[in-house]
Design a protein that fits this description.
alpha+beta, 3-stranded mixed sheet, 15 helices, globular, 13 strands, 4-stranded antiparallel sheet
Length: 391
């Protein structure tokens, strides 16, 4: 059996990359990374993401999800390129002008500590600009699973009949799988110092999805991977110092965690450093030499992942701060990754970005937030923003 038909179907689905690896080789790599994960948790770097610890056993033991797993198909889907649409800033970093936020709304930094004008929008992390990738890619995995069952001869199974007794388990990030370890095992890339999986030619702007199967597939060949060498750009570029060592992220400091997974208030020590990032952060990827100048290798081939199909690159702060109800929030953001933060989290983030803006026209809007909202956490963030804008 060869993988030519499988490869053809995967390309037709729009995936940017794929690899097949035996369960035996995956298990060896998972065992190595399990101790790394435990050390990370022991240091408290997972913050309050307790689900990571709860799912540990399943994450590092795929046989818990599919007892007789023999092969793992790992797939990549590009979600952005290196052209820099909607780049972000913080007071500790210089700002690169956004291509798509209106020219009149861009900000200028005369030095690293002074804001002279502001764009009244908040920047969305690149991965979240299109439709919810979990749903988009899970649908494709199910289609691929069905194709396997209908098209491949399962001669390794007792009956020898096409599709008979073939089983699969599909996962896109949200399930108990260690996606980056699977991607490394299948040859999609290497672990960078920013903790992302980096493909030497395509960079790191891609989602990872996987299928466990009891079908024994031929492994794809793995190319020898480079590494980051002496480069420290991502570590130095992290606004909050969340990259505490090469490949080690302290989530308690990470802007992506603080603005998405974190359900409480954001510590004041990080608020200015968030800058204009209203949802997530790409600072450690935007500076990476494997991403810079690679746009011709980073074409988004699944339309639903493009920003035109989702929330886009920026959000208008006045509009976000004016959202009055959960219903209004859902009506606007259903089917996008921003649902993860919920109305409460997005309002909190918008208050911080407004407070960093230097735009005093936002003060009346923030005052309305304080009058309208009963949530003390949101009120406190709005009050903080007003104090900053009043200086």
């Amino acid at each position: 059996m060869d993988n030519s038909k499988l490869e053809q179907f995967i390309k037709e689905q729009g995936w940017s990359a794929y690899g097949v690896v035996s369960f035996e080789n995956v298990s060896k790599n998972l065992k190595k990374h399990e101790s790394v994960f435990q050390e990370w948790v022991d240091k408290g770097f997972e913050a309050d993401m307790d689900y990571l610890k709860r799912m540990k056993n399943d994450r590092f033991h795929p046989e818990n999800k599919l007892v007789d797993v023999k092969s793992v198909i790992v797939l990549g889907a590009i979600y952005s390129d290196s052209d820099g649409n909607g780049k972000s800033y913080s007071k500790s970093n210089s700002y690169s002008k956004s291509k798509s936020c209106d020219e009149k709304n861009t900000i200028t930094i005369t030095n690293t500590n002074t804001l002279t004008s502001f764009n009244s929008k908040g920047v969305i992390a690149r991965y979240a600009r299109g439709k919810d990738y979990h749903k988009v890619l899970k649908k494709k995995l199910i289609e691929l699973s069905d194709w396997l069952k209908n098209n491949l001869q399962t001669t390794n199974l007792p009956t020898g009949q096409a599709g008979y007794n073939l089983q699969t388990y599909c996962s896109v990030d949200s399930g108990p799988t260690v996606d980056r370890v699977l991607a490394e095992s299948a040859g999609l890339g290497f672990f960078g110092k920013n903790s992302c999986i980096i493909n030497p030619s395509r960079g790191s702007y891609f989602f990872i999805a996987s299928i466990y199967t009891n079908l024994e597939l031929p492994e794809t060949s793995n190319k020898r991977m480079p590494n980051c060498g002496n480069c420290q750009k991502c570590i130095k570029n992290c606004p909050t110092g969340a990259l505490v060592a090469p490949g080690v992220v302290n989530a308690q400091k990470c802007i992506s965690y603080l603005t998405i997974e974190n359900k409480g208030g954001i510590p004041e020590e990080f608020r200015h450093k968030i800058g204009n990032r209203i949802f997530g952060c790409d600072a450690c990827q935007e500076i990476c030499p494997f991403n810079v100048g690679r746009a011709h290798h980073q074409e988004i081939t699944i339309d639903s992942l493009k920003s035109d199909y989702g929330v886009g690159e920026c959000l208008n702060l006045k509009e976000i701060l004016s959202i009055k109800s959960d219903k209004e929030f859902v009506e606007r953001f259903a089917g996008t990754p921003l649902m993860r933060a919920k109305k409460r989290g997005l309002l909190r983030n918008a208050c911080i970005v407004a407070g960093n803006s230097g735009n005093k026209e936002l003060i009346p809007v923030l005052e309305m937030v304080i009058k309208r909202e009963s949530d003390e956490m949101i009120k406190e963030h709005a009050e903080w923003a007003i104090r900053n804008l009043s200086k």
